[in-house]
Hints:
The complex is a heterodimer of chains A (350) and B (141). Chain A has 350 residues and is of the alpha/beta class. Chain A has helices at 10-16, 34-44, 65-74, 90-102, 132-145, 176-186, 199-211, 230-239, 247-255, 260-279, 297-305, 325-333; strands at 21-25, 50-53, 79-84, 107-111, 161-166, 190-195, 220-224, 286-289. The longest helix of chain A is centred in the C-terminal third of the chain and has 20 residues, at 260-279. Chain A starts with 9 loop residues before the first helix and ends in a 17-residue tail after the last helix. Chain B is elongated, with a radius of gyration of 17 Å. The interface between A and B is large, with 41 and 33 residues.
Amino acid sequence: MNSSTPARGRFERALLSGRPVVTCEISSSDGADPEDVRRRGRLVRDYVDAVNVPDNTSGVVHASPISSCAILAQEGIDPIMHMTCRDRNRLALQSDLLSAALLGVRNILCLSGDHVIHGDHPQAKPVYDLDSTQLVELAIRMTREGRYLSGREIKPPPDLFPGSAENPFAPPYDFRPLRLAKKVQAGTRFVQTQIVFNVERFAEFMGGVRDLGLDRKVPILAGVAPIRSVKAARFMRDEVPGMEVPEPLIRRMEQAGDKKARREDEGIQICVEIIEDLRKVPGLAGFHLMPINWQSAVGEIARRARLQPATAPERTPCDDTAPTPVTAALGAASAPGSLPLLRDPQERGP
Amino acid sequence: MIQTEAVPPILEPVSRLLRRHPRVTLQLNRAVAPFENSAKVLLFSCNMCGQCVLHETGFTCPMNCPKQLRNGPCGGVRMNGHCEVKPEMMCVWTKAERRARRLPWWSEFLRIRPPLDWRRKGSSAIINMLAPPFEDSKERP
């Protein structure tokens, strides 16, 4: 694979387009069948600009996201690879970042990673040699300076597009926008948030973000997810630390009953309503769908919420095409001779 | 991104002296480390990483975080402010943030801290600050 891969840069172009961007998360392969990844990729590809592949989600072993992302790239889908500091020291992180770049995967979501204690191998030794902020800094250094952490030169350097995550629903709430500011300072190029169920709290967080001017420096995609059942909702509330599922949502899922079609319909409806509410929150650049093992819901959510990928060729003009502040700022930044935030990789010096 | 502590101007002469005599400095480091560390263990449950940031983190040792994060809390902090890994323990960074906000040098808390140098673990952070114990200038062909 080389730099002429058609999938390359689609996500970045989408963020520059000035239109709301849609991304979606599919799980990495849980078996040795590459067709499985392709199938799930095809389920969502028409609705999104890029597809996230997580890295041993909640500490449960899956195939490395490098392989799944490479398969998606072959399919013409622009992948966003999650890279966690849980399983790799700084040598392995740099090696994997470079390997990903070799395979045409350049969007990297830099994460600390869920602790192994919640996974299927709680006995394992977690690594955490770097943290997520340092990983962003590292990816930026590899790309812009063309050097490893050691200072040794990379020839030729990878062209990475690192992003970060933020969870507005975990204490200390006041500090979350400041933490995001640190990541922006480290050079992060995009942000995807934890799943939003509590829109009020999220709007508060975005208020802090806007006060710091971060929404104009970096595109922020709000995480959204459909709830499949009341059991899933309770699990997320009780067992997933840092996830906030308000009581009214759980009651709505209870009222939807046990019938599969009925409760799934209600789950999708809640998700669509949250998207509608989030559209009123200023400073967002798009949405990140996290249909946990429920890729088939993506099409339905996109249809009901009128979500379209920003880069769709057959995109019809619709009401939400006004550029958000951030995309306007990014568009200005990509003008010739301006700051190197989104410069053309080919322009890099020798 | 290599750890470089700023030496306070008043200690600059001491720093220069120590840098001139690396072998003596190493001995001094070994002599000072047990005292410095035992005091910090008692006061701040220090983990002896050898590159102290206690003053920046509201005198809360970030190395007590199960993920040993140096740049703020992870996304797994529970609603009550406790740790996701050890539910009985207050999140180190929740505590650090609360304490650091009360300090006049609060802005230090927001500094991006570079990756740890694991070679320094167990050595004296004070002596390390005055005279970096390892040269990182090794050129490779």
